Amino acid sequence: MIGTLTTGFGVWNPLVWLCVILVALLFSWIIWRCGESDYDEDTEQTSPYLSGNAEPAKGAVHVRAGNMYWGFTAALKSYYDKLIPLHSGIVNDYVSWFLIGVVVLFAVVVLL
User: Fold this and answer.
1) DSSP class of residue 11?
2) Which residues, in sequence order, are CB contacts of 73 under 8 Å at separation 6+?
């Protein structure tokens, strides 16, 4: 009961797709067989090539999340130095700052 399904967008035949998959697997196997057969996992072959230099420790080359934004935070260092002490982590403080901002904004709107 394997037939061809014809729709308005194309044709679907499972036997054709099965043949395509088998041919792809055959080519994959041929390419795999052409690879080097003298590969050993626990030798220098598994080490990354760093232009002949010794591999540094993992902690020395690990890029931390803070380093990704280094340029941004360095450029705005004076801003962050003033802003970070204001963050207390207490919601009441944030609501107070919000209300102060609203009052200032309201005053500016009324005066202009």
Assistant:
1) E
2) 66, 80
